[in-house]
Amino acid sequence: MEVVPVENDESKNFKTLFSFYSSYLWNRVVGFLPTSASSFLGKISYLCRQAARARLRGRRECLPLPLASDSLDSYMVLRKPSRVYDVLENILKHTLFNLHNVQKNLQFWQSRAEGSNARKMYFMIFERGPRAFIHGSVKLIRVCVAEGSSMQHLCHSAASHISERIKVLSCLRSELAIFLAQIYVEVDRFGEELLTDPETSLPALLATINGLFSNLEASIGHLHATCQRDAPVEGGYSGLLKFEKLLGVSQEGSQWTDCEVGEAINLIYRNIHTLDSYLSDLVAKHRKPRKITLHWVRYTCGAVGLSICSFWVLQHSSLMGSPDIDNWIREARDSTFSFFKDHVEQPLRSIRDELFDTFRKRHKGVMEPEEVQLTSNSLRRMLLTFGEQTKGQKFPENASDQELLEIVMERYEKELAHPIQNLLNGELARALLIQVQKLKLDIETAMLELDQILKANEINFAILAALPAFFLSLILLMVVRAWFKQDTRAEGRGRMARLQRRLLIVEVEKRIMQFQTYVDQNQEKDAQCMFGLMLYSLDRLYRAVERHAKATGEWQCLRQDIIDLGKPGLQTTYKLLVTSRMERIYDCLLPAFKRQ
């Protein structure tokens, strides 16, 4: 009974020593790797955010505001409050940009959550970079030695890692979608008043937007507190989101001076910048790994393979005194020139000669018609002379060769009765020579016909010789074409991009119906969220079809249909009719097989 505690003490001491030394080694290894809080990475992150904002400023036009600003009268009215129009467009553009950034990262984590446990474990170890690979391997070994259930622990860690990011990004997407929907609805409500009476409606609109920013601050503040309490991340979260408040918001009915309006607009711009900075920091902590991080194992293997190949090339190069590479280059060059000459240059020249040279300039054939005619005339005279001497009568000039040959064959058969005697004194030798002449005529006639066939098919043979080069050029052309059409995004070209645009319409239809369902169930917040997501889908569709619709001349009608889908006051049935018409009518949205 006293042996068991001794064994337990020894196992505990072993686990303690293993944990101590593994932690020590891990800290030593991590010390050589750059930390996430280093100033160098901080500068890189800052530069990336600045580049993203620069790309945002250079992006194409986003989904238009629900204002009738296309007519001349509306333009004359909007000249004075153009700053407000610009700030509204900036709010819409920046919100859509941030929403797209959140949605892109959320889709990645959702795809990882749908994978199997093995796929999640592979992601945790091999797709988060070399530092995570070392950390995960050490942790896996440590848990395996300490507890013996390392796979289950790793699966639980992967699920927790992914679900935490999905939760934060989903909440953030919901709040941004609600903010976008509220801004869009308020602009639609103030639209006519802003065009007809901007002096009165402008202060109320600015005060409403200030209130919407305050609501967004409270919602994201609640999300921030939840994240800090439930799921802390590496490096911690930044400070709370704080927007500047507009003073005198209770005086919505009063007239504002131009200075007050300008100050309110500048305050909104500062709030937009604050929101961008906060969201970029928050999303960066939950963003998907970069492409180079996801595929770092492949890139590492490729780098190792490239290093080995470089070392091998260096060994066979002239730098190491080896003429192998020079010889290979010379042989490859000679083979290329020989292939080009045999399968490109000579066939093309032959085709050119066949197409542009006359028959008189062609080279002399194997058999000419004059030679065949000469042999035929000689055989004719021999047959006439043999028949006249054998029959003792003169044949007419139009006697056929067949009749004369029959006379020769009859005489030949008789002479064969006594071949030796008739060979010396008879007509046997003469009949044999006439048959040889006939055989010569038949051979020359066949050669003449064969020569004519070859001459008639010279261009076909030349084309056949050029086929390898033609097929090689065709393959290269297909590769180049596929490379140019490899962009499968909705903005790109090709069948896959066209399919992505049609899927965007399906996404808009689904969100229109979900929005109506939430409205019927009196779920106001969910309805606002779904309306904002519908506006986001419309913005993606707007950007995807703009270039293609302008090329086909459909842009004006298609643009108006997209704007109508975003109007809050239109009935759901009418919107569904519009989406159905868009799928059937517009060329840039039709399936590839229906365009033929």
What does this structure look like?
The chain crosses the membrane at residues 459-484. Keywords: Membrane, Mitochondrion, Transmembrane, Transmembrane helix. Pfam families: NCA2. InterPro entries: NCA2-like. This is Protein DGS1, mitochondrial. The protein is mainly α and 596 residues long. It has 4 domains: 11-29 and 78-234 and 258-311, no CATH class; 317-363; 369-484, no CATH class; 495-585, no CATH class. It is built from 21 helices and no strands. The protein has helices at residues 3-32, 39-57, 72-78, 82-113, 117-126, 130-146, 150-196, 198-230, 258-286, 291-294, 296-315, 324-356, 369-391, 401-415, 419-425, 428-456, 458-484, 494-520, 524-552, 555-566, 572-585. The longest helix has 47 residues, at 150-196. The two termini are 88 Å apart. The relative contact order is 0.07.
Keyphrases for this structure?
disordered N terminus; 21 helices; mainly alpha; 596 residues; 0% strand; single chain
